[in-house]
Structures are given as structure tokens and as C-alpha cells.
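TL;DR need C-alpha cells for one chain.
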Amino acid sequence: MKTLRQQNRPVISYVPRIEPAPPEHAVKMEGFQDVWLLRNKYVAFVLVGEKFERSPSFGVPEAAQRWATQMRQEGEIIG
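>> reply
TL;DR here they are.
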């Protein structure tokens, strides 16, 4: 029977991040608090509770910022 390869390799356990940051390839839009450029679309990331919520993709950054502002206001009412 063949031996298992790399049997002395340490086991690395994955711990998911509680507060995921926007992806590395996202570009922060200047002049907007929560808006990032992601694949030629504007996306907002808002911290709600202990995790980030991601908006749908928008064609203009103002729409993404409006979504983010609305999510913040809803979070204040609920939480």
C-alpha cells in the first residue's frame, strides 16, 4: 500500500473572517464613504451588526451611496 503524501504537513484550519473587507481588486471611490468600483460597477459595503452587507451592482456611484445610507438608517432603527 502506498504511503500518504505529505503526511508530516501541518494541518491548517480555516477560520472565516467575521468582518470581510471588500475584495482586493475593488477600488475605493473618492468622495464616497462606502462605495467601491468592482468589475466596472459600483458596489457599497456597509457594516451591519457584526458583518458587512454588500449592495447590488449599480451603474452610478450615487445610487450605491444612497443604498448604503438607507442600510445604515435601517440598522439604527432595528438595532
